TrEMBL record:
GO terms for molecular function: protein-disulfide reductase activity. It comes from the Bacteria. It comes from SAR324 cluster bacterium. GO terms for biological process: cell redox homeostasis. InterPro entries: Thioredoxin-like_sf (IPR036249). SUPFAM superfamilies: Thioredoxin-like. This is Thioredoxin domain-containing protein. Gene3D superfamilies: Glutaredoxin.
Length: 141
């Protein structure tokens, strides 16, 4: 049930391997690929796209157990423009879902994509991994 509910206060304090709740709040997630492309050009950083859903249990699991690991968090926060696109709710849900289908030929959640600063596809990662090294390898460019 933990994966369905929003993370409780202090959830990130499980062990020394995880970031604090304050560290998690510092990271800026955009909700627009267009905005991310402009920022990627300005900063010369690649884009990390997170296709997610409000009702996606595996998405919450990845956020709580992989994204919250200190090394993964550091890489994501420092090396990428982060974009979270919800496909099952919100004002842009239909637009986000169509982007995922048309550009990446999938509706899988979670679905992660790395794009170059010039919006070129680099690689993707579908589903969850309980192996932090596997996800770290995905983030390595």
């Amino acid at each position: 049930m933990d994966s369905v509910l929003p993370p409780p206060s202090g959830q990130y304090l499980i062990s020394d391997d995880f970031i604090s709740e304050e560290e998690a709040k510092v990271v800026k997630w955009l909700d627009s690929l267009e905005e991310a492309k402009l920022l990627a050009q300005a900063t010369q950083k690649p884009i990390f796209l997170d296709f997610t859903g409000y009702t996606c249990v595996n998405c919450r699991w990845m956020e709580q157990n992989i994204f919250a690991l200190k090394d993964i968090h550091k890489t994501m926060a420092e090396d990428f423009i982060l974009v979270r696109l919800y496909t099952d709710g919100g004002q842009r849900a239909e637009e986000n879902l169509q982007l995922q289908i048309e550009r990446f030929n999938t509706v899988a959640l979670p679905f992660y994509v790395l794009l170059s600063k010039d919006d070129q596809f680099l690689k993707s990662f579908s589903g969850i991994s309980r192996n932090p090294e596997e996800f770290a390898d995905f983030l390595a460019l």
